[in-house]
Amino acid sequence: MTRLREVTPGVLVATSRRMSTNSTLLVGGSDALLIDPAWMPDELDALAGAIRRRSLRVIGGFATHAHQDHLLWHPGFGAAPRWASARTAALAASEREALIQFLGDDFPEALVELMGRVRSVDTGVPSESTPTGIEIELIIHDGHAPGHTALWLPAQRVLIAGDMLSDVELPLPFHPDDLPAYVHALDRLAPYVAQAEVIIPGHGNVGADAPARLEADRRYIDDMTVRGESSDSRIHNPGMFEEHAHMQELARGMR
Ligand SMILES: [Zn+2]
């Protein structure tokens, strides 16, 4: 995992060695909201250590969606409430056995136990879990996963995109396969993308190129829907060839 680095004042990111998964920390004073901490046990240990060394108190967690690599937690983060959209919270509970399987047999028991223990937000992150001076808008939609949630920080113009708008992963509208919902989600994100100065994807590089990423995702989906093929270079990234093949099948059904 990379060191925690401040990408803009009050917004810190650390990146896992596994699938470039980003953990984001929103800091106000000595309080912090921890978003999607991930992934490997030693990395979660290190993140807990980094938070402790900065003398930060984690006052809340947030999970962008109900996939196992976005529902993790560590005893060192403390016992603050962890939040997610209603659909994410419901799936984290109903799909718990499958999500545990995805973590793999050698994931430590204590971390397995903590995975997915999220509560449903109403419309926003409750004030008890919002660091002083940080305003957060939730953009809840069904792209990538039901109840998938992006976080928008209007003052900092930061878009924490969950598993969308990645520079390394293709659009992944799977399980359930729902391309129309994904396209709709991109439309929902578009006004925020237009204002974003920083984009933090669930997997990939933090960037200043949110509009280009949205454009690339729309082009890929258009190309796949219309022609069944794409020249998107992300197809050649690790793990993406199978996802691309899945999209080929899905898009064929749309024509
Ligand atoms: Zn995901």
Q: Overview of this structure, please?
A:
With 255 residues, the protein is of the alpha/beta class. The protein has one domain: Metallo-beta-lactamase, Chain A, CATH 3.60.15. It contains 7 helices and 11 strands. The chain has a 7-stranded mixed β-sheet, covered by helices on one side. Strand 2 and strand 3 form a beta hairpin. Helix 5 packs antiparallel against helix 6 and helix 6 packs across helix 7. The longest helix has 17 residues, at 179-195. The radius of gyration is 17 Å and the shape is globular. The termini are far apart. The relative contact order is 0.13. The model has no long low-confidence stretch (mean pLDDT 97). It binds zinc ion (ZN). Zinc ion (ZN) binds next to loops.
List the helices and strands and how they pair.
Layout lengths: L4 E4 L2 E5 L6 E7 L2 E5 L5 H13 L3 E6 L19 E3 L1 H9 L1 H8 L5 H6 L4 E2 L16 E4 L8 E5 L4 E3 L18 H17 L2 E3 L9 H17 L13 H15 L1
Parallel strand pairs: 4-5, 5-6, 6-7, 10-11
Antiparallel strand pairs: 1-2, 2-3, 3-4, 8-9, 9-10
Zinc ion binds next to loops.
Concise overview:
This protein is 33% helix and 18% strand. With 255 residues, the chain is of the alpha/beta class. The longest helix is centred in the C-terminal third of the chain and has 17 residues, at 179-195.
